[in-house]
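Support request, please re-run this one:
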Amino acid sequence: MIKIKTFICFILLISSISCFAQGNYGGGVDDETLHFGFGFQYISSEYKIQKFADWQAPFPEFASDPNKGLKSIRSIQNPGFGIGFVSDLYITPNVNLRFTPIFVFADRIIDYEFNDGMSHDWHGVKSPEGFTRRVVNSTMFEFPVGIKLKSDRRNNFRAYLLAGGKYGIDIGAKKNADDEGEIAINMQLKNNKGILSYEVGIGFDLYFEFFKLSPEIKLSNSIKNILKREDHPYSSPIEKLYLRNFVFSLYFE
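Re-run finished. Output below.
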């Protein structure tokens, strides 16, 4: 709630400054057929988890010990950041096509709670008391393409809606060999290397003398299951795994 209030105050402040500006501010970017820019993103990542009906049953390797069964599986929101570029193609006065390739650094977290209350730390990742934490390290190179639907410009302000899709490649994905020699209870969760997602968002174009600033809020959800299925206690209980990102961006054009 505090972050949302801070964001609203920031937008109102920038809007009030922009509205007092005179002339065709924004460096004339709206008059260009194709223009470029750069952007920064704050990202909050989490999983949407679909479990099998028997997800609480102990992993076969530990079937004789009911305390090895699961009590809960939860995804924790984790912050990340991104930096990239903007290519904006003029289509009509109220429609633009945008291509915004970006590097994203945002790890994902799942906490498992076993009936015995034991924690099984992974390579220096400290688990909360009573839980076993698994962190999926991720460095993504994403290729978003979207349609920007803009309102008419009022002084040096306009609002817009954004809808589109993106394909991300996890260039930091771990190889299967990383887990060789590990017992099942200590293995790591893995995701597919390629992730296809859809995106929807809302934003504002704020015009200054030599550039245009666009704060934007966007929600992104993966379309297909991204779980890389393996035979161990962290993968077996999960039927499907989807990635959900809340993204706040600042674009300079």
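The chain has one domain: 2-252. Residues 2-252 form a domain with the Porin fold (CATH 2.40.160.20).
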